[in-house]
Amino acid sequence: MTASPRPGTPIDAIADAWVDTLAELDPSLATYIGKSEHNDRYADFSPEGQERVVEATRATLSALETAAPVDPVDEVTKEDLTRELRLSLELHDAQSHLRDLNVIASPAQDIRSVFDLMPTSTVDDWSVVAKRLRALPGAVDGYVATLREGIARGVVPARRQVSEVVTQIGRYTSDTGFFAGFAAEAAPDEGQLPASLAREISEGAGAARVAYDELAQFLANELAPEASEQDAVGRDLYALHSRRFLGATIDLDETYEWGVEELARMVAEQESIAHEIKAGASVEEAVAFLEQDASRKLQGTEALQRWMQETSDRAVEELGRTHFDIPEPIRRLECMIAPTNEGGIYYTGPTDDFSRPGRMWWSVPEGVDEFDTWRELTTVYHEGVPGHHLQIAQAVYNRAELNSWRRLLAGTSGHAEGWALYAERLMQQLGYLDDPADRLGMLDGQRMRAARVVLDIGVHLSKTRPDESGPWDAAYALEFMRHNVNMPDEFIRFEVNRYLGWPGQAPSYKVGQRIWEQLRDEVAETEGDAFSIKAFHQCALGIGGVGLDTLRTALVG
Q1: Which pTM value belongs to this model?
Q2: Are residues 210 and 279 located together in one domain of the fold?
């Protein structure tokens, strides 16, 4: 980090203005990064709203293309922001917004999930929440209009995704679902809400439930009959999504073959460790042995949350003394149980001023009440320190050098998730996974990520199955994951549906790790005896979130 602020440049001004434009056009994104002035409304999800985003994207791209970099920081900003703007226009031209529906990261979830990040400490905070609740039906209407436009053009999501989202919405809107609970529990830190505001929130939550129920009816009655029977999106669209999630162009066929080889390597490594856990045991037998060990189990979500927080706090304290320079604001990481039951584990970054810290969220599926610490220890390192939290919060903290776009919005899944998997292996190398059971848990996750490379590319490019029994399909994908992952079936089903509806995202973890490791090795080879792994990490994280092609240019030229 620089000792004094770097003078702003014309390219910084363009990037900062783009953040302001995005915050105006997408208030949920503004909430995520802590620009609270837009917290009382939603984006325009209609086709007209989409066109306004495209117009703004083209204007920013035009300004950026004519701006000259004045230093290496500018060069990274221009390369990466130009790449992102051009790709977003390509995706729009491919009409991806008209089929934007899946089980984890589409407006169907985003319209609801923004409430998880809204401030609720004061009466004024709850007044803003009430306004956004009132705006929710209009946001849903705009989204439905876009999906209807997709039906008219024959650009539709897969029927499987439609059906699964209808089921999700049922959980949002039930009498014990999110909106009912959100309204019932509304209260500021200092006491009760005024009766008029409590009524307004209750009425807003009721209107939100109605709007979501109407969305479910549209999905079931209008979209589902027109939706595609095919889960595969095809090579051309998949290539766009792969670039979106990696920030890099890869050879999809070579990557598929590498994924098959990497999966076999993970299986062999697991089998070796299984013998350490129980002499002569297979992986399945070692897992069964560990699942009988009560000392490695947590009962209930309260125990899970406490264990997550304690594990995270210990990693921050110890690594901050030895292997990383961790500034004080980054040392605060909150571990949370999410208010939904979708099955995901995820991280949300801090606000620009760190008034809301980085948070690790666990969305526990209904019926799951028991958790294995040997399986999940590596997850805490993945989501926290030295994983996502160290990486993302470090960029937010680096105000002296990075413009607001670089700190808050730049980056890709491949950069972030690749680093997080890299961090898991790093923790093994640093001795935090010396217990064979914990290493087996880490490898279980790494094996899953390798399997996802094969599955995701295999399904969406309709490749021949590894057993050569025919082309990939959803049923084979489910059995493939069951064979390669030791997880409850509720998790596996959700994961497979996620891959089918979110093409290109799942492989970005393992492929991103591959690229991170390749870059580290290239830098080490170039620097020879002068190479310092700590210095490499500090330099790489100091760049902030970028696409992996941009990261390669910045680190190795």
Answers
A1: 0.88
A2: no
